[in-house]
């Protein structure tokens, strides 16, 4: 005889977690989730291109190592966007299939704070540099 208590199933002397029932969501929601995932990947690719451009194309700055530091921050933001997009896509897909609330978004905060840092450093470097 088995007894189910919420997420747990008691059967004899053993207790095990019961996997929530999953159902196929409306295909439009799945496609919207995939479009969002691809948008995050485009953002990651743009951040990576910006990192390469800062390091390779921006003229030498008065602050030593500023180009590499800005490029590194942009690369880290690119990694965050691409890695976070995969995790977000999976979590949203799982939530839709289990009819659960959608998970909170953390990647946007990371990107927003990181880009504010890049803009602040770039602004300081531009403001303190010589007028040409």
Describe this structure in words.
The chain has 132 residues and is mainly alpha-helical. The protein has one domain. It has 3 helices and 3 strands, in the order βββααα. The protein has a 3-stranded antiparallel β-sheet with strand order 1-2-3, with no helix packed on it. The longest helix has 33 residues, at 66-98.
Layout of strands and helices, then pairs:
Blueprint: E1 2-5, E2 8-11, E3 14-17, H1 27-57, H2 66-98, H3 107-128
Antiparallel strand pairs: 1-2, 2-3
Helix pairs in contact: 1-2, 2-3
Q: Radius of gyration, rounded?
A: 23 Å
Count of separate DSSP helical elements: 3
How many strands, what sense, and barrel or not for the largest sheet? Answer: 3 strands, antiparallel
Side by side, the strands of the main sheet go 1-2-3
* Average pLDDT number: 87
Which consecutive residue ranges, at least 5 long each, have pLDDT under 50? none
Shape, per Cα inertia axes: elongated
Number of strands: 3
Number of domains: 1
At a glance:
The protein has helices at residues 27-57, 66-98, 107-128; strands spanning 2-5, 8-11, 14-17.
Which key features would you list for this structure?
132 residues; 3-stranded antiparallel β-sheet; mainly alpha; single chain
């Amino acid at each position: 005889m088995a007894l189910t208590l919420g997420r747990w199933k008691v059967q004899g002397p053993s207790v095990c977690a019961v996997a929530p029932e999953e159902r196929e969501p409306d295909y439009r929601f799945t496609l919207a989730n995939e479009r969002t995932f691809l948008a995050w990947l485009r953002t990651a690719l743009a951040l990576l291109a910006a990192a390469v451009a800062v390091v390779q194309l921006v003229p030498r700055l008065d602050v030593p190592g500023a180009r590499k530091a800005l490029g590194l921050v942009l690369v880290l933001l690119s990694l965050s966007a691409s890695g976070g997009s995969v995790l977000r896509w999976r979590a949203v897909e799982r939530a839709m299939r289990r009819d659960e609330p959608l998970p909170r978004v953390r990647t946007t905060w990371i990107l927003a704070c990181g880009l504010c840092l890049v803009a602040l450093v770039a602004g300081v470097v531009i403001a303190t540099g010589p007028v040409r």
